[in-house]
Specification:
The complex is a heterodimer of chains A (174) and B (260). By secondary structure, chain A is mainly α. Chain A has one domain. Chain A contains 2 helices and no strands. The longest helix of chain A is centred in the middle third of the chain and has 133 residues. Chain A starts with 14 loop residues before the first helix and ends with a helix. In chain B, helix 2 packs across helix 3. The radius of gyration of chain B is 23 Å and the shape is globular. The interface between A and B is large, with 39 and 47 residues.
């Protein structure tokens, strides 16, 4: 069955093949280690650098952005308080102006009312005075007609009328 | 198939024997099918890396990525994984080893080649001896000769009484058997794989040509088996390359480990 084994036992190496194997593997290893793998390692390093550098840059940009954001937020808050202050001031101003206007208006109205009152009082007095004389005359005339005599005595007549009017006034006051 | 018709039982070399592994020289003992295949493998691997890595850029092209992923597979998946942080130093050697074994193994299923140079034990011996030299040299460099030998021969925490027994065992297993098992494992796998393919393929011809209809059916089944085993052989070819590299890496790792 193993006739061929007599030519060469498979567990015995052929020495020429050992030499060829060594040389061929040596050539392969030399070429790859000299021209291929160092380049790949370099590329790998460059890639790591690129990625890590990119990450670093991104982190820096992120930090910058955060700083800017905080700055903007602070500015915004400042602006808000400023606006609130201005609003409050404006409100206070408006309130003051309103009060001023109101006070002036009140003063004016008071003045108008006072003037009206004075005028009214004057008119009333003049009316009262007129009425008083007219009523006296009318009453005397009426009485004269009723009693059929002329109440010639001026002095007496005047006193009677005055007394009557005074009575009327006191009654009105009660 | 016309060839099949002309084949008679006597034309088929049967049974397959070790003689099938020793083909007539192409031109003397230096230029044989095996040595040509080995040189071709070297050329193919160099061409592959040179072509994929020309115009290498930080953002890799598809072919560049392909070449890099072979190197990256061995560097990250074997060297760094097994040896640790120092492993990257050994990645070039391990990758060369992996590519060389993988290509020479895969010849076993490539038409016209159809046999792996590694089915001649000379090539596995060369590779195993290189790995053996490397792991011993890095171990001696790191620990010094005396300490390195002692570290490998005297396991820590073993009773002194057992040492006369253990030292020869450790010596044989570490310094003698490692290269033997490395080379024989690769050689035997490729040898047996080729033999099995021969059995089913040639056996198929024999059975089909036997004239008996039942045996002819068995012959067709035998060819089906040959196809299935060819796929299996492809898996074994790559697996054995991986195993060889993995073990080389673990020997290196053991040699440069601080204590073990």
């Amino acid at each position: 069955m193993f006739l061929a084994a007599e030519e060469h036992h498979p567990l015995l190496p052929i020495w020429q093949e050992i030499v060829i194997g060594l040389v061929a593997f040596g050539v392969l290893a030399w070429v790859l280690m000299k021209f291929v793998f160092p380049k790949m390692d370099q590329m790998y390093e460059a890639r790591v650098d690129a990625i890590e550098g990119g990450l670093l840059r991104a982190e820096k940009a992120q930090a910058e952005a955060n700083e800017l954001l905080n700055q903007y937020k602070a500015q915004l808050a400042e602006a808000r308080t400023e606006a609130a202050r201005i609003r409050d001031e404006a409100r206070a101003d408006a309130e003051g102006i309103r009060q001023d206007v109101l006070a002036k208006a009140r003063e004016e109205s008071d003045r108008i009312i006072a003037a009206g009152k004075d005028q009214l009082a004057g008119e009333r007095q003049s009316i009262v005075r007129e009425l008083r004389t007219e009523m006296g005359t009318l009453a005397v005339d009426l009485a004269g007609k009723i009693v059929g005599e002329s109440l010639a005595d001026e002095t007496r007549r005047k006193g009677t009328v005055e007394r009557f009017l005074a009575d009327l006034e006191t009654a009105g006051a009660k | 198939m016309s060839q099949l018709a002309t084949l008679t039982t006597s034309d088929i070399p049967w049974p397959p024997s070790t003689g099938d592994f020793f083909l007539p020289d192409v031109a003397g003992p230096w230029i044989t099918k095996f040595t040509i295949l080995v040189w071709l493998a070297v050329a193919l691997i160099i061409a592959f890396f040179m072509l994929t890595q020309r115009n290498a850029k930080i953002v890799p092209s598809k072919s560049q990525w392909l070449g890099e992923s072979v190197y990256g597979f061995v560097r990250d998946g074997v060297a760094k994984d097994v040896i640790g942080h120092d492993g990257a130093k050994f990645a070039p050697y391990l990758t060369t080893l992996f590519c060389f074994i993988a290509v020479t193994n895969i010849y076993s299923i490539i038409p016209t080649a159809q046999i792996s140079p590694n089915s001649h034990i000379a090539f596995p011996i060369v590779l195993a001896v290189i790995s053996w030299v490397i792991f011993n040299v890095v171990g001696i460099r790191k620990h010094g000769f005396g300490h390195y030998v002692k570290m490998n021969l005297v396991p820590p925490g073993v009773p002194k009484l057992l040492l006369p027994l253990l030292i020869p065992i450790e010596f044989i297993s570490t310094f003698l058997l490692r290269p033997v098992t490395l080379s024989v494992r690769l050689f035997a796998n490729m040898f047996a794989g080729h033999l099995i393919l021969l059995v089913f393929t040639l056996g198929g011809f024999l059975l089909v040509g036997s004239g008996n209809i039942g045996l002819a059916v068995a012959g067709v089944i035998s060819w089906g088996m040959a196809i299935a085993l060819t796929i299996f052989e492809a898996a074994i070819a790559l697996l054995q390359a991986y195993v060889f590299v993995m073990l080389s890496a673990s020997y290196i790792a053991g040699a440069i480990a601080d204590e073990h």
